[in-house]
Amino acid sequence: MEPISFGDTPRTRCHYYRRVCDLPARIDPPELGRIVMTAGHIWALMMPSSLGFAVKNDLQRSRHHDAGTGAGPVIAHIRSSRWSFLIRPDLPDDTALFAEMFHLNVSVVRTGATISLPSPTDRGELFRCWIQPPRCPFRPSGRLVTDSVRACAARGGWLRTPTGHT
Questions:
Q1: Which of 20, 62, 128, 150 could disulfide-pair with 118, CB 3.0 to 4.6 Å?
Q2: Mean pLDDT (10-residue bins), the chain, 166 residues
């Protein structure tokens, strides 16, 4: 993440998220300094960190998306050993797709849900950290990321992949 010249506080981090990354971040609750956003024009796909590691590598190798590079912003949730990929909300409202993702232990975080973002008050990296921080408004297509999830799951081996951020 780009350094912020006036200090890294929840307030300055929210400002960066909103201004540079187009993330609708807010501090909630203010006394704890936790940074969250409500899913709307941004959704997330949350998955086990080992699958996330495989998907991130797959997306970084792939260059067939329309803007940006790589996997886009990826958050590690340390205590639950899960990663969240911030995505464009272009997934169809399809029960079969959600069931397929559920079977792979992937959650689709849709409009109205709360997404927690890394905050400087997270006591180091005990709660959340960026695997790949946002540097601009780019988010990959949700369809592209679900295709990568399918490809990685079909190849197997990802369950044994150490991520370093579990």
A1: 128
A2: 64 96 94 94 97 94 59 93 97 96 96 95 78 94 96 80 54
**Residue 156 dihedral angles phi and psi, to the nearest 5°:** 70, -175
Length of the chain: 166
Residue 42: give the domain boundaries: 10-154
Question: Taking a C-beta distance cutoff of 8 angstroms, is the pair 128, 76 a contact?
Answer: yes
Q: What is the pTM of this model?
A: 0.87
Residue 162 lies in a domain: no
Residue 150 lies in a domain: yes
Q: DSSP letters of 9-75?
A: -HHHHHHHHHHHH---EEESSTTTT-EEEE-SS-EEEEEEHHHHHHHHHHHHH---SSSSSTT--EE
Helices 49-61 and 142-155: angle between axes, nearest 10 degrees:
110
Q: Round to whole Å and give the CA distance between 166 and 32.
A: 24
37: tokens are 């956003």
Q: Which residues share a beta bridge with 77?
A: 82, 128
Q: Is residue 30 part of a domain?
A: yes
Half-sphere exposure for 157 (CA within 13 Å, toward CB): 5
What is the domain count for the chain?
1
